[in-house]
Amino acid sequence: MLEFSNFEMTDLSLEKQIEWWKAIVHSINDGVLVIDHLGIVRLVNPEYLKITGCTPAMIGKPLKESRPGALLPETLIDQKTRVGVYRKTGDREYVVDMAPITVNNQIIGAVSICKSLTEVHKLNQELKQKGEKLEQLQKKMNSLYQANYTFKQIIGKNRGLKEAVHVAERVAETDLSILITGESGTGKELFAQAIHNESRRKNQPFVPVNCAAIPPSLLESELFGYGDGAFTNAKKGGKIGLFEMANNGTIFLDEIGDMSYDLQAKLLRVLQESKIRRVGETNERRIVVRIIAATHRDLQQLVKKNRFREDLLYRLNVINLHIPPLRERKEDIPELVDSILQSSVTNLELEHVPADYTVDEQTLAFLQSYEWPGNVRELKNMIDYASCMVEGTAIKIEHLPEILTKNRVVSPSLQVNSVDKPLQQAMEEAEKNFIQETIKRFGTGIEEKKKVANALGISLATLYNKLKRHHIDF
Ligand SMILES: Nc1ncnc2c1ncn2[C@@H]1O[C@H](COP(=O)(O)OP(=O)(O)OP(=O)(O)O)[C@@H](O)[C@H]1O
């Protein structure tokens, strides 16, 4: 009920006050109609005329005259407020709120406020469109954050690898945190995706984050998001973080060993409390996320050097999966090569090679003799390159990248029974030359030896063996 009894506008003359009130009513975005206690129309605003299609001629006449079905005069009698009354005149639809106007407990009139449903329909339509857009974005986001691999795609019969697959399959359905260790390119993300796809979270996002690729100063806001105006250049309205994106799914924290010590403490708190706080905000948001972390670093060593928090290591390392490097599972190379060849034809859209092209025996033996510092990723890149270069039905040594064949880094345990002696000899010589070239680059001395071994992608012990075998003084 509208009460005017306490209204004061002492500074204005009566005329001015009326003008003032009319201006207010006219500027209202809803339709307004006022009748006096006799049911005579005293005031209508332009929006009312627009919504109902009435004309200003109705002013000064009984409302029932221009609108015989009007309910407002009844409000004068029963003094009831009516809300959301649906009205339709021709093709005009609108809803009306009605209320009596009282001054000093006396009914002096009634007011009707109406809102066009055409407007509401339009807003509804807009809302629907926004909803559809949101759904599309959600789908897009889910497809961006989708895990593609399953355990079936993990190739290898090596004992260490099979053991890792076995454990991963057993723990996939649980929510236990997993730490995957192994050199770069060994398949850590492949494992993480397969675990996610085998879990009950498989229809939820899988969000990979490379902690080493994001500048430390940005990593916190990338992980946890930020609030409105959290810092200069911050997006208006703030930004959702990767943890929130991964809600109900899995977050894969790759290269966790590269995370700053300070951020490690914040991450630990998030893991313990299942709550995140966006940078610059005070409120916390609950999240349910499965954590899989990975690193090529020795985290125990980093703990000893005070560069990794021991408490975080224990929290992440509930299950440890170690993926052996490719040089320790060379028996898997032929099968990996076969699978890469098959996918190369389709992925690279190669038209110049037959679907059943292969790698010839000598080349395969060479691939098995190489140390693969970049592991399966490097093998895949090499085969993809050779697939583009191949002429005929089989990849030969000359189709491999020059850098690989010129700088052959071959393992001491070269098992190439089927290989012609000249190739073996050539490879031995190439290895010797390559080691000598690398020594020239780095120089001599114990530290330099380490650098040489590093550059060659082999251990110091292997380097010593090779030096002895090739009679190289160092
Ligand atoms: N056992 C395997 N079977 C089939 N493909 C594999 C296997 N291991 C690795 N790959 C392939 O090798 C490539 C590199 O794997 P992935 O990215 O998972 O390695 P990573 O250890 O996570 O590397 P990084 O530490 O550099 O991030 C991918 O294309 C992956 O599909």
TrEMBL record:
CDD domains: AAA, PAS. PROSITE patterns: SIGMA54_INTERACT_1, SIGMA54_INTERACT_2, SIGMA54_INTERACT_3, SIGMA54_INTERACT_4. InterPro entries: AAA+_ATPase (IPR003593), AAA_lid_NorR (IPR058031), Homeodomain-like_sf (IPR009057), HTH_Fis (IPR002197), P-loop_NTPase (IPR027417), PAS (IPR000014), PAS-like_dom_sf (IPR035965), PAS_fold (IPR013767). Residues 154-388 form the Sigma-54 factor interaction domain. It comes from the Bacteria. Keywords: ATP-binding, Coiled coil, DNA-binding, Nucleotide-binding, Transcription, Transcription regulation. It holds the Pfam family AAA_lid_14. SUPFAM superfamilies: Homeodomain-like (SSF46689), P-loop containing nucleoside triphosphate hydrolases (SSF52540), PYP-like sensor domain (PAS domain) (SSF55785). Residues 117-147 form a coiled coil. This is Sigma-54 interaction domain-containing protein. The lineage of its organism: Bacteria, Bacillati, Bacillota, Bacilli, Bacillales.
